[in-house]
Every structure is written in C-alpha cells, then in structure tokens.
Amino acid sequence: MGNSKKIVIIGGVACGAKAAARARRLDSEAEITILERGNYASYAGCGLPFLIAGAVPSVDTLLTMPWGAIRDAEFFKNTKGINLLLRTEALKIDRENKTVTAKNLDTGETTDFPYDKLVIASGANPVAPPIEGMDLKNVFQLRRPDDAVGILNCIEEVDAENAVIVGGGRIALEVVDALMAQAVDSTIIELMDQVLPNVVDSDIAGILTVQLRKHGADVRTGERVEKLVGDDNGNVCKVITSKGEYKADFVVVAVGVKPNVEIAREAGLDITDRGTIAVDDRLRTSDPDIYAGGDCILNDDLVTGGKSYIPLGSTANKHGRVIGTNITGGDATFPGVLGTGFMKTVGLNVVRTGLSSAIAEKNGYKIETFLLSGHDVSHFYPGGKDMIIKLIADAADGRILGAQMIGAGNVPRRLDAVAAMITFKATAAQVGNLDMGYAPPFASAMDLLIHAANSLQNKLDGIAVSMSIMDFKKKLESDKDFCILDVRAESEIERSPVDKGNSRVLNIPIERFRDEIDRVPKDRDVLVFCATGTRSYEVQRALAMAGRESVFVEGGMHVLEKLG
Amino acid sequence: MGNSKKIVIIGGVACGAKAAARARRLDSEAEITILERGNYASYAGCGLPFLIAGAVPSVDTLLTMPWGAIRDAEFFKNTKGINLLLRTEALKIDRENKTVTAKNLDTGETTDFPYDKLVIASGANPVAPPIEGMDLKNVFQLRRPDDAVGILNCIEEVDAENAVIVGGGRIALEVVDALMAQAVDSTIIELMDQVLPNVVDSDIAGILTVQLRKHGADVRTGERVEKLVGDDNGNVCKVITSKGEYKADFVVVAVGVKPNVEIAREAGLDITDRGTIAVDDRLRTSDPDIYAGGDCILNDDLVTGGKSYIPLGSTANKHGRVIGTNITGGDATFPGVLGTGFMKTVGLNVVRTGLSSAIAEKNGYKIETFLLSGHDVSHFYPGGKDMIIKLIADAADGRILGAQMIGAGNVPRRLDAVAAMITFKATAAQVGNLDMGYAPPFASAMDLLIHAANSLQNKLDGIAVSMSIMDFKKKLESDKDFCILDVRAESEIERSPVDKGNSRVLNIPIERFRDEIDRVPKDRDVLVFCATGTRSYEVQRALAMAGRESVFVEGGMHVLEKLG
Questions:
Q1: How much is the pTM?
Q2: Which CATH architecture has domain B466-562?
Q3: In chain B, which residue's Cα lies nearest the Cα of A82?
Q4: Backbone phi, psi, residue B439, to 5°
Q5: What ipTM was estimated for this complex?
Q6: How far is A388 from chain B (nearest CA, A)?
Q7: Residue-wise pLDDT tens digits, A131-167
Q8: Would B347-460 and B466-562 be classified into the same CATH topology?
Q9: Which residue, A501, A507, A505, is CA-closest to A489?
C-alpha cells in the first residue's frame, strides 16, 4: 500500500464525505483520510431544525444509513475503507511538501498527513454579527448537531417560553417552526423589510409572514438588533432593537454563513473577491493537486452566467461526486446551480429557483412577472391543496428567469419542473407547452404551472394587462379615485377587498358582464377583480376589445386574503 | 355583427371548448358556435372513473368552474358569448360553400352553419372489439358522463358484486380502483402479457399487478376475451376467455380509443395512415380554413421526432389554445408531446414519460436502463413514502429517452422534472446535475432522481455493472449455479430472495466485506444483493477493482418484495 495514492480531505460533512466515498468506489487502493474538526462527520446538517422540533429523535438519526448503520469512524473504516479522524482540525497546508498538519483536539497532538491529492471541504460558519452580548449564555447559532442539542437542553433547563430569532432567512424560519413544536414563542427580527430577503419577492414573503403570525410568531422586519442583554447569571434575557425590546429566554442568531477559507488563504491558494476558494469547473483550485467544494466555493449561476454563493447540502454532495471522480483520474465537471431552495414552515411549502425580481433587475434584466393562485389537483377532485405560483421572465425574449411558489399543495413538483426548464433557458411559451403529467388526482387538465406560463406569455404579448396584487394593495391604501370592477358572483362578494358599499366597487358578475358593460365608468381607472385572476382576465380582454383600457388584478381575492 | 367572422367548432369537450374560449378572448366580435352531439360539453372526461368511485359526487361536479358556475349552454352564452348547441351532431362539411350541416338529435331538424373558420374537435370513441355479446345489457364503455352514470345505476340495480374489465390499460385500472370503492370485485382480462402494455415496462407492471391483487383484483394477462354471455333477460352474466370463464354482474370494455374522423374523411380532408386528421404544426388541416385538434390528430413525438397517437385531455386543451389563437389571426404552433401519463390506482401513483424500453428498442435505440428504490423525503424525516424510479437512456450518448416511476410517494414531482429535461434532450449526466429543490421534508440531499441518473451514468461508463430485478427473478427460477452475495446486515436477511440455508446464498455484511472478500467463490457467477442496490453496488465496485467480475441486483430486496 506504500505506493498507493494518498488522498486527504479537510472536512467530512457533505462534500468531503461524498468525495471520499466516490473516490473509494473508483480507486480501491487509495489511502483516503478525512480530517474533521467536529464530533460528527457525514451528518445531515439540513436536518438540525427537525432535531429541535423533535421530528428527528436524536443526533444519531442524522447519522444513520437507511438500513440502520451509523456513519461513525468505524463505519467509514469497515464499510468504505476510509480513515475518518474526528475532532481533528487541519491547521496548515504545506503545498511544497504536500502535507497537511492537523491537531487532535482532545490530545493537542499535531500530525503531518502527506497527500497526493487534497480536498478542501471546509464548509462555512455562521456569521456572528458584531452585536454586544453575542457571548452571553443561551445565545445560539445553528451549524452543527451540538448546537441543536444545546438549544433543546436550554429549552428544558430554563423552561423556555419565548425566544428571539435574529434573522428571517430560511434557517431562521425553520427554527421558528421547530420551536412552535416545542411550545416556544418566537419573535423574528429581520433587518431587511421582509422575511427571506433576496430569496423570494415581497408578495410571497408577505403571504408567508401572515401565516407565521397566524401561527403565533411575532415577525418584525426592517428592525435592527442593537444589543443582547444578560441577567445576573450571564444568561441572555432581553434583546434590544432599533424599535423596541423583547424578552428572550434564549436567542438564535441565523443571519447567514461565511465560507471557511483561512487554511486555503494561508496556503496561498487563489481566493475570490467574494471570499471563497477559487476553483475551475472541475472544482480544482489554483493548485492542480488541490480541489475544493461545498460551502467554501462559488457556483456558476446557470441563469446569469455569473457566479453565485449559494451554500446548500444538495450542491455540496454534487461537488463531492465531481471531486471524487477527478482526484482518482476521471474527468468530471460541475455545470452550476439555479439557486433552487425549498423550505417548509408553518404548514407552507415555500420553494423558489432562479432569480428573484429584485436580483433579476439588479442584473439588468427588464422583467415581466405573473402570479396565479389555484389548486394542486383538479378542482373537482377531493383533497386538493392551495398553491400560488409566480413566474419571472425576461421581458425581451420571454425566457424564464425565476419562479417562486408557496402553499400547502405540491409546489415542489411544479418548481422542479420549471427549474429543469430554466436549466435549458426555456421561455414562457415553452413552459406553457410542457407535457406535464395529468390525471385529476394530480393536476387540472391545464396545470396551474401551464396556466401561469400561458398567462405570462399573454402579458408579454400585450394580450393580458394586469396589476400585481402588491400594487393593488398600495392602490387600495392610496386616496386615488378608481373603480374596482368586481366580476365575482354575488355569493362570493362577502369577502371583498373593501368594505361593503364602498363607492370604489362596482359588482357585475361575469355572467351579466356582456349585457352591462356600459355600466363600467369611463372617467376612472378600472381594476378588474375576481377570486383568482381568471374571470377578471376575461373581462379585461372584453373591455380591451371594446376599446376600453383596464387592468385585472393578479391572484385576486384568494391571494389578497392570504396577504392579510 | 353580420360582417363578423364565423367560427364553427365540431365537438365541445376539451379542445373544442378551449379553442372557443381562447378565440373569444382574442376576438370579441366573432360568432362562435360549438356543435356538440352529447348531453354535456366542456366536462372533465378524465374525471369519469372518480365519478364511479364516488370521489366526485355528480356529473355537475365535472362541469363546475372553481367558483361554482356550471358550464352549460347558458354559461357559455352569458359568460363567454359562445353559442353552445348540445345534442347537435355535425353530419357533413361542405368545404366549397363553407357550411357544416348538423342535426338536432331531439327534433331531428337539420341546419346549415356557415363558417369562415372551422375547427374539428371530434375526439375519439372507445374501440368496440368484435366480440360476441357486446350488445348485451350491462356491457359498458367509458367515454361520456352518461356511461359512468350507467355503471353506477347498474351496480345499484343488480346489486353488483363482481365485474369483468376487458383491457388492462389506464382507464381500465382506474375503473378497477373506482369499483373497489363501490365494493365490486373486478377481474381484469388483458390480452397482452402485462397490464399497461406499451405504457410501462414489465417490472413496473409487475409491481402494480401485485398491488392490484393485494387489493382483491383478479388480474389475468395474456388472455383473450372470446365471448360475453347473457342470461334470459339479455343481461351479461359471464365472460368466456381463451383460458376460462368468469361470472360478471356487468362488464366494462376499455381497450383503447379510435379517432372520430368520418366527417373529415367525407369532406375530403387528408387523413393520415394511422386514421387521424392530418394537421401541420399550427394544427391546420389540408384545408387552410379548417383546423383540427384533440383526440382526432397525431402529435409530434418530441423523443423520436416521429408521430404518436396519445389522446389526452391535457394535450387537447393545449391544442385548443393553439387553434383559438390561429383562427383569430394569430400564429401559434404546437411543439408536440413526450407521452407523459399519470394514473392513480390501488394507492399507487404510476407515472411515465417518453419511450418505454420496448418502444425505444422498436425505434432502433440501443438502450441502457436503471431502476432504483427509495423514499421521497430524507430517510430520517418522518412520513416519507416509497418510490421506485426507472430511467431509460440511449446507450450511445446517454440521452434520457423515458422514465417510469411507481409508488405511494411524490413520483409526479420527479417525473415532471425529468419530462421537462427530456423536452430538451437531456443526458443522464445532465439530470444528475439538476438543481432540484432540497430540504429534508422534500428530498434526500441526493434526491432519488439524481441518484438514479448518476447510477445510470455509472452503468453507461462501465463503472456500475448490474442486473435488472426481472433478470434476477428469472435467474432465481433457473437451475443455473450461481452465488447470491447478500451484503445486508444479519438483522435484515430474514426477508431473503431464497429460503434460509440455500447453498446459493453467501451472506457477508458490507461492514465485514473488506476482510472477507476471499470467501467470495471464484467458480460461479456472483450476484451481489442488498436492500435497494446501494450497498451491492459498492461491493460490486470493490470486487471489480480486485479483478473480480460480478453484477449487483438493481432495486434489491425492496423491489423484489414488491414483485411478489
């Protein structure tokens, strides 16, 4: 074995463990060593919020293979012939002599590990914002299993009733949901003016916020955490923000992560201007014998053609596979990502891919969007659930740039389908013609995704003229004069955007519209309104063909209600 | 209005109704008339089995808009300004004078309808096989709402306990599931040697068959119905087949449909050699003023580049939209279909797209396939459900030609994603790198679809050497000498492909395999076996790198068990 290839891997969670396993399957002789500073390797990091919720019973569960084996050092040794060293921190890379110096965190002993190929899968660490009081007891960040266990222990020890969550991103909102399962009330403090900033648009964020509040979360946006205050025992007890103060039995800070690149930087490897390890599409660093993957690199952005920092376990696993191939003599490349992200919280599936409206505009695209509400199965089939679908296209050529969906329904299905199409730069028209699966238990004959794509195409073609629900809300709050032409049936208008008898509303059910079109005022803006945007579109078309300008409100009453 | 365009549409179910609605939204002046010979228009035909099951309470439900309006003639008139004539059968097209002659089926009166643009959406009728006794009472075919009501009435009238279903295709199997809900036992008689012939491969059909039988259906394949026998009252009471006879309180014949093209043929329009109305990609027939869509035309096949007859409501709606655009002066084309088909029966979602293995081979492709079993959410997350995924690729270039999936889990999500990719001629490697959504409530970090695509790529690369579960079953039944190397843990081997102590089996749990590799016999074929095909792949790789030939069994015990 003395002549066999030596592979050393720094970090053994997602990318590192996968690179090791793939390398082993392609090279039975290589000596493969993983240096992992934590207590666990190859754990499902994305499962940590569910450990807090109790949905996942123990840390071991996150380390378990489907057939029950636990991915500990013995498992790696026996099953894979891989040398996994836990609590072993890589300190330094000597590129000239091709060694990594690592310290055993228990004994303090350091050892040099020679390598032929080195993989840096050092991941990322939670950002610790420069707030006074971050070092108080019961202030947590969530990255490793011990963090989740720490939160659970704290809840029990202090009999916690309320927590402040600093940040309103994905992990923050998963933690809020988990804490509800533990009967802990959360206050979310988000600096930006919405939850999931840069992830979803304000409409989707608004719908999610209403649902979070319905479930008891106190959501505060556009608010800056100034200070964490401790009690006499050094336990956090209060959070002071730019707008107020909140009692807190504990605090979870989840404001993003930052790549761990110090060891690479010190070794003189190229670092990008965004602070990640520079790699090519084979995931090779500036040193041909060193590869890097996972949360410490940028990805090619398949939508913009640029680079994005989107750390995610699914991507890290793909990186590991590419690296495992390449360090054993193969030739694999990683094409890049769309930025697909899924989360589940307060009973809603929130899914997105590609560019958000704001990011698309920041990238110089002139965009057109469409938002539609409906069901995930045929409306006549029992058990259907709500979905809201929003598509974002390049107004110049109709290419889909991004999609966002929210609801209790099967939005993952529609999102992955559109993500697959965005990979190939599909247009709205192409999405509208996708041969999606159909049968009443699964979809309408025109699935909501197809319908949304067609509607967006109608908008791009100038056939459909609409107003977003957010703009409609703003208009409602303004003192402008306009007419809401509500074309719903009389039985439906109980739930209305405005109070009964409001002079702004004219109700003409669509069934009577053709006869009563002359009742529509000519001296005011006309906003056509219905339950979802289907009938209002039809009436907007009829008005347009009669030479009358109007706009219909996307999403209609269904979405307006969800916005609270 | 005398100068406005006259649009006549023959058939008002899916394509016809959609063409009319789209045309109306683009041309408010046109006179639009739908001639529909049935009692209903614009009903959800795919919902008929669920009407039988009782999941859909009434025919009206299939005619209802999401907001409660019923799509009757009054609805079409008032809401859309469309003239819908029910029970009005188009008899003849006079292309020279541009009129359609139609008969009122109640009064017998005929009327000529002049047209500027004509749409033929005449659909398809169930094939009536040339079997003696087809004209007996209580012999049904399922095409229109009245047929479903007829079956329900019959069940009540004769207090039916058992039915014979002639055919084992999608509608047949949906009906079987529906009849279970009505406590009627079904016997399925399928001429071909599997259910869903030409739709799914024998492995997926086998899994479905086992489940059908578990639910009490008597599935007979490779059996020809010879005769339906009636009692003294002219009611069917028995079905005689090539292999036996079966008592039947009623019979449902569902052996496919055939396009209704007589009116087009008699008008001298081009008819394809497959008996459909010939159209171009704008869905225009050989007469530039006549369009056709829905179940009476062929579609471009996006996989083979040829033509396919795949009648489906979702496709018919897309046709209608294209036609509605084109007959009002627009320019839309229909790109074609993949052959995506979904069904739900006996608790299983059965979904497919593209070419089946047999059809791919018939089209001259040399194929490679991979089948994998797993869960639809992270295995550590509660509530996950089973999925089996099979991918079919062109062995020459790795392009995915088709996919089939079965299980209680969210296979629609994975199927639509791969369908979207097949639209763009994606390879297995591209599917393996798809940026699918990930979070533990939705998927594993490496989703089963990604895993299946990677495995197929490994096979194409010669890295993975496997045997299909069907070939393994055949081998088990043969008297050949071979070794099943079972690498599962001892706790798992209770459920095994062979009896305990069988000399063909050698159990070496994967954890011990590296030490005990010398125990693997050299004088026999070695078939590596585990629960799903994951560990067995790893061992096959280890053997290969030690210079030893072996194959691993795709799907492993999980799939073998489902095959009964």
A1: 0.97
A2: 3-Layer(aba) Sandwich (3.40)
A3: B514
A4: -165, 150
A5: 0.97
A6: 15
A7: 999 999 999 999 899 999 999 999 999 999 999 999 9
A8: no
A9: A507
